[in-house]
Design brief:
- A five-stranded antiparallel sheet has the order 1-4-5-6-9.
- Helix 5 crosses helix 8.
- It has a domain of 168 residues.
- It contains ten helices and nine strands.
- The protein starts with 19 loop residues before the first strand and ends with a strand.
- The chain has 364 residues and is an alpha+beta fold.
Length: 364
Amino acid sequence: MQNQLQPESLQHNHKFEPVQVAGDPATQERMDKSIEELNHELESLTSDSFREKPNRKKNDQTVPLPDLLQGKALIVLLANLPEEEVGDLMYMKIQEFLDQKNKHNLSVFNETPSFYPDNKQASEITEEKRKFIDNEMDMMGIITQSIVLFHHYTGNLDYISSRTFEIHLAISRFWASLLTGWFKEKNLPFEPGERISNLCSLASRFLELSLRIITYMKAENAWTYKDLKEKNRFSELRETAVWKEFITAESRKASSKNVKQETGLYIEALHQGKANKHADSWYNFMRYVAGIEITEKGLYLLPVLPENFISWQMKLNFRKAILDLRMTEEHFNIKNISVTPVTFTVIGQVLTIQQGENKTINLY
């Protein structure tokens, strides 16, 4: 990954538009303050991710993760800014992070990475090595989750290019390296538990996405894909066989436990984003006042009228479309003010709105 992503679209400043709330001055005041915090946070998200942290030792090899990659913050950005710009920013920050890790030799991203020195059994792995693997899994888990969240929200693979493909391949190889050891009989570096189970589920989702990306690259740009395979010494059949084996195993485990995978990823993302108070305020407004919920399946409008009625209006970015949303005392008004049709669910009904179309949904 030698080339740095430097999208021109990120050279200018963005600001979130205020949400208009009528009927409750206290709510309007809270939202105005929240928007100010969002704009301040956006400035920091688009600045250098690797500012020197206070009290950080010069020789400390721990690379800080960009705040952007916390699940809830990413959802807030996607809902307020064009997805092309969020995608450019996200991949740029991930590439910076991976480049910095390689610079410190924290991970080896090549065709045969290994976390199991000299094929030692798990019981023989040192405590220092265990902590290293533990930290690697947590950091890469957050990055993995951010990418999966992004692609689920946007619903397409338009952001896959030569550089982003290499990012996906590096992360896929990370999980494949770690998971290959877990296929060995009882050779787990950690005790099985909920945390490991969640990471395995997330890794499976990411590897599924990587397989979709490979199919996409073959169909859309076969020559570029061929060059990337040679450049990165990617043995597709051999490496993806490991991915598929793990995906199958995770699928069986999920089925046996009757796990509802549709919502788990987003619930976890919101937990990870709990430190972002600005995102929490904005997301809570969407859920509890505006009745808007973002899920893995898409965008849902679930009107939850407060006891003291509040009318509101706002603009929302969703899957290349911009929606003008308004709620009055008796109905939702939704206008697609972009050039792209958009489909989502409103009160349990699937709704498609064409370019410039305006629809009203009665609440009573």
